[in-house]
């Protein structure tokens, strides 16, 4: 049965950024595929909302209020999560923030804050998960969240774009190092997705941006969190058993890098 490759029954997943947007959609979808899902985020109310949604649908979820920039706490939380089922099979490192400013006006503290969450937070989660997976001896799948910003420049996106480019390099490097242990590492680089992060724009600006994207995109629409969640599920599952060090781009065709 072809769909069996996407069945995560009996497996354990850890998802950062699970309180909203792509992180929430991913946590919900991995649970629907059968995984026990550990949901992590700083936003406690919405985090517990994600866990409640999973439980209400018959899945199993464990919420963890977590600041991904706290390396020691990330290490403890990921290791502790694995003890609940005796394994860790999937990490989806999705937590991220946005900052916009022209290059000439970007402050050091802005760059440090974005790198702290978008790059270091991903690095800490990846290292913690890889250590658990190596010790478990079952292999596993690590999925990081990059962005379409790695394929093209954009005004005001220095901090965000640099942090996501760093995630891409981390993904490729880690893939070469943990491949011998049967651990796959891939990234998802979405295009414009309707999430709380993109809602930072005022309504008129958001409408103009989305209109431009719709006109440029071969598929003629912007993305939804579920579009990205399905990409994560694919990379997390046995359907992608021969895929590592790759960047999957659910972007409606806006960017087509060679």
Quick rundown:
It contains 7 helices and 7 strands; from the N terminus they run E-H-E-H-E-H-E-H-E-H-E-H-H-E. It is of the alpha/beta class and 258 residues long. The radius of gyration is 17 Å and the shape is globular.
Describe what you observe in this structure.
Helix content is 45%, strand content 14%. Helix 1 (21-32) packs parallel to helix 2 (44-56), helix 3 packs parallel to helix 4 (108-136) and helix 4 (108-136) packs parallel to helix 5. The chain has a seven-stranded parallel β-sheet with strand order 3-2-1-4-5-6-7, sandwiched between helices. The chain starts with 11 loop residues before the first strand and ends in a 10-residue tail after the last strand. It is of the alpha/beta class and 258 residues long. It contains seven helices and seven strands. The longest helix has 29 residues, at 108-136. The chain has one domain (2-248): NAD(P)-binding Rossmann-like Domain (Rossmann fold), CATH 3.40.50.720. The protein is globular, with a radius of gyration of 17 Å.
Features:
Rossmann fold; 7 strands; seven-stranded parallel β-sheet; 258 residues; alpha/beta; 7 helices; single chain
* Most strands sheet: 7 strands, parallel
CATH topology: Rossmann fold
Percent of residues in beta strands?
5-15%
| Overall helicity | 40-55%
How many whole angstroms does the radius of gyration measure? 17 Å
| Uncertain spans | none
N-to-C CA distance: 33 Å
């Amino acid at each position: 049965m072809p769909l069996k490759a996407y069945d995560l029954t009996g497996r354990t997943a850890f998802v950062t950024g699970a309180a909203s947007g792509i992180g929430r959609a991913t946590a919900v979808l991995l649970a629907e595929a059968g995984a026990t899902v550990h949901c992590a985020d700083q936003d406690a109310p919405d985090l517990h909302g994600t866990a409640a949604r999973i439980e209400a649908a018959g899945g199993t979820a464990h919420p963890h209020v977590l600041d991904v920039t706290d390396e020691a706490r990330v290490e403890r939380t990921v290791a502790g999560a694995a003890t609940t089922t005796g394994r860790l099979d999937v990490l989806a490192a999705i937590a991220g923030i946005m900052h916009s400013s022209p290059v000439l006006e970007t402050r050091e503290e802005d760059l440090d804050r974005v790198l702290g969450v978008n790059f270091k937070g991903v690095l800490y989660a990846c290292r913690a998960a890889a250590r658990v997976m190596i010790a478990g001896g079952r292999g596993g799948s690590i999925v990081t969240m990059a962005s379409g910003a790695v394929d093209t420049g954009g005004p005001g996106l220095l901090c965000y774009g640099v942090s996501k480019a760093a995630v891409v390099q981390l993904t490729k490097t880690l893939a070469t190092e943990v491949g011998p242990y049967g651990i796959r590492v891939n990234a998802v680089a979405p295009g414009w997705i309707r999430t709380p992060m993109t809602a930072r724009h005022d309504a008129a600006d958001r409408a103009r941006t989305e209109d431009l994207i719709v006109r440029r995109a071969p598929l003629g629409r912007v993305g939804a969190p579920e579009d990205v969640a399905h990409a994560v599920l694919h990379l997390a599952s046995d359907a992608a058993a021969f895929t590592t060090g790759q960047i999957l781009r659910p972007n409606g065709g806006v960017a087509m890098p060679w």
